[in-house]
Amino acid sequence: MNAEIIAVGSELLLGQIANTNGQYLSTELAGIGVNVYRHTVVGDNEKRLLASLDEATNRADVVMITGGLGPTQDDLTKEVVSRFIGKPLKYHEKTLENMEQFFKKRQKEMPMNNKKQAHYTEGADVFYNRAGLACGMAIEYKDTFIILLPGPPRELKHMYEHDVKSYILNKLEEDSLVLSRVLRFFSIGESRLEEQLLDLIEAQTNPTIAPLASDGEVTVRMTAKAVNRKEAEGLLDTLESRIRERVGDYIYGKETESLPFQTVRFFQDTGKTLSVAESLTGGWFSKALVDVPGASNIFEGSLTVYSEQAKTDVLRVDSSVIEEFGTVSKECAEQMAERVRQLYSTDIGISFTGVAGPDAVEGKEPGTVWIGIAGPEHVTAHLLNLTGNRDYVRLLAVYYGCWFLLKEKVVNE
Q: Contact at 8 Å (CB) between 110 and 145?
């Protein structure tokens, strides 16, 4: 199958919101073997939406339309699709009942225009909205499946995961199954990774390999097609083994597992505890950890010691160390890590100090970062020379902190 995605909403064209729905759907569809060939963004205009729909249905097996299912006059998607197909709109009773209950619980009268959110085109399969009000739908038109999804990302994702994904899979060839697996890499660039896997990528047929870079890391999506799950998993296992032989040292996880997630799980598995002292990252590393469920089992606490005085007065870094080496130094990073470990009585302490930018500090250029790690027996520090704007340097520092904790001998001793 190939697909096109049409996002409806003048606010998208005006740049008031980003089209994250398109990104999400492309990723999900690729995971089940559906190729997305085109994205289109259309304003709240009946004529232009009709034209986009006409073009897309002549090219694609699946046309997914997001947005325009709301209660206002400029929410035109269902009306346009109904007119395009030539079938009337009807009310989905379960959706209508849900809306009535929604307003009743809030002791409000439901406006008449809200009823249009329960519309669906005659003959369509209806997707009940468990996270909102407007129902979605799917209808076959000639050789194309037209699927309508709500615009709010939370509603769209919930509907896709619970109904639309299985709907599409049922429409794929019955004698085949498409299975994907994602490998996650860090501390290797996309071009370097592709270079190491180039012969596999050039020779790909089944499974296929698709590298993708995003926010300082790289992922590789492997997709296999087979008659059953066992055969598909066998194909993916073989390919994964070949990839690991070449670049396995850079793999830190699979699927949606993030570096902070893997770090928390690693500490849970080893039974060790962690504390953090942050300067340039300003609490970002601590937040990344506590965003992971279960972090309270391994994370004792943190200190954000941004100024020189905070480092000496609060964290008790020796003033002589700062006077001799500066705050952006190996010596300062190591002492910060050891002091926070002692303060919270944890197995491991980690520290972040450096220059996020835009200006140099202590003669050190933006992107200069020291990450210290203290364990029971010894302390070490890693120097990074990162590039990018202020926020990107801080983000990479957080990721590298996780990476060093996963790889560092101090932690694994």
A: no
- The whole-model pTM stands at 0.76
**98 contacts: CB under 8 Å, gap ≥ 6:** 128, 129, 133
CB 173 within 8 A of CB 159: no
pLDDT in tens, 178-236: 788 999 999 999 999 999 999 999 998 899 898 888 888 999 989 898 888 899 999 99
Contact of 134 with 119, CB cutoff 8 Å: no
Smallest CA-to-CA distance from 358 within 387, 396, 333 is with 387
Residue 61's Cα: distance from chain center in Å?
Answer: 27
| Cα 225 from Cα 223, distance rounded (Å) | 7
d(CA 162, CA 138): 14
Q: Is the distance from CB of 150 to CB of 165 less than 8 angstroms?
A: no
93: three-class secondary structure by DSSP: helix
CB 149 within 8 A of CB 138: no
Q: Which two tokens stand for residue 28?
A: 């999900």
What burial class does residue 320 get, using C-beta atoms within 10 Å of its C-beta: 0-12 exposed, 13-18 middle, 19+ buried? exposed
